[in-house]
């Protein structure tokens, strides 16, 4: 049987009446089906009603998705967001405790964009809310273009830490990535290790120390895994960690 891969959802309004729906982009589903080799299971953003122990017991892996919404600053004692900044408190109410429980249980985690920010906050770190407003930082936000290849195309390089899980995938000290975020790591959470940085010092990839596989990337490999080998390898190594955990007590960690 294939492993069950949880994919975090956002609360989004759809239809003429703006009905609340629990949604995740199709790109994560395709990557799970075609690269990870698992069964995608959407994890609803149902806040305090989420049964975290049951999710951790049933899921074989967890993908934390990107989103337009930002992690609410009340979760890391930050100042209020600027007016109009989208938040999703129900998603925060699920993903933050779910990350802590999954990492503690050794359930493999792949955290992408907002997901990496969630992992940092869940484990005790904090965030910059608008990187583009900070001195000496580049604008990491989404290019407002109707063309998908422009919006999701490579926009800057990241420096990869030698010996990191990411370096083992790419075999290079620098790789190009896309960039579609405003928030970024400020105070790194205890137990997280930086695996890549942007030219302006922004943290771009991390892993959690410990026996399990829990990694995060600030960019979006789900957009181009069909044509970019490094993006594909990110999902492949996550899938390998999932299968290694299912196979027995010898687990694959990000440090292996």
Strand elements, count = 13
- Secondary-structure element sequence? EEEHEHEHEHEHEHEEEEEH
Q: What proportion of the residues form beta strands (DSSP E)?
A: 15-25%
Low-confidence stretches: none
Could you estimate the helical fraction of the residues in percent? 25-40%
Q: What is the distance, rounded to the nearest whole angstrom, between the alpha carbons of the first and last residues?
A: 26 Å
Widest sheet: strand order?
Answer: 4-1-5-6-13-12-11-8-9
Instruction: Based on Cα principal axes, name the global outline.
Output: globular
Radius of gyration from CA coordinates: 17 Å
- The domain count comes to 1
Overall average pLDDT:
91
CATH topology (fold) name: Rossmann fold
Category from helices, strands and their pairing: alpha/beta
CATH class: Alpha Beta
Can you tell me the CATH superfamily?
Class I glutamine amidotransferase (GATase) domain
CATH architectural arrangement: 3-Layer(aba) Sandwich
Number of helices: 7
Largest sheet: 9 strands, mixed
Describe this structure in words.
This protein has helices spanning 26-36, 52-58, 89-105, 114-122, 148-151, 165-170, 229-247, and strands at 4-8, 10-14, 19-23, 39-43, 61-64, 109-112, 127-128, 156-160, 174-177, 184-185, 192-197, 203-208, 214-217. Strand 12 (203-208) and strand 13 form a beta hairpin. Helix 1 (26-36) packs across helix 7 (229-247) and helix 3 crosses helix 4 (114-122). The protein is α/β, with parallel strands linked by helices and 256 residues long. The strands form three sheets. The chain has a nine-stranded mixed β-sheet with strand order 4-1-5-6-13-12-11-8-9, with helices on both faces. The model has no long low-confidence stretch (mean pLDDT 91). The chain is built from seven helices and 13 strands. It has one domain (4-247): Class I glutamine amidotransferase (GATase) domain (Rossmann fold, 3-Layer(aba) Sandwich).
